[in-house]
């Protein structure tokens, strides 16, 4: 039986002002172990500090053999990801955009 993922929610603003709380929430989820999923559906405004945090969590999870995923990025975040070059490979597009990123 597959374990239910630990969902970590992000409020509508994911920027330098809120990054500390998001970091703490992710850190607690990683400490609990298991599958972790970051829910992005409520994000309406984000900056590069948020993207960098998620990329760091993604790399940490991979190096520790943990499962870390995000729900598909909303359009507001997708534009930032595209401008920053974070969805240039098929693997990155799939991570950030889910099935919609397979193009």
UniProtKB/TrEMBL annotation:
Residues 14-86 form the MlaB-like STAS domain. Gene3D superfamilies: STAS domain. InterPro entries: MlaB-like_STAS, STAS_dom_sf. Transmembrane segments: none annotated. This is STAS domain-containing protein. It comes from Rhizomicrobium electricum.
């Amino acid at each position: 039986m597959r374990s239910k993922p630990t969902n970590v929610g992000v409020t509508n603003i994911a920027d330098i002002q809120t990054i500390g709380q998001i970091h703490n929430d992710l850190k607690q989820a990683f400490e609990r172990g298991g599958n972790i999923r970051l829910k992005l559906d409520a994000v309406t405004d984000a900056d590069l500090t948020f993207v960098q945090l998620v990329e760091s969590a993604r790399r940490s999870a991979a190096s520790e053999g943990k499962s870390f995923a995000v729900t598909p990025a909303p359009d507001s975040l997708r534009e930032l990801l595209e401008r920053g070059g974070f969805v240039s490979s098929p693997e990155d597009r799939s991570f950030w955009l889910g099935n919609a990123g397979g193009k």
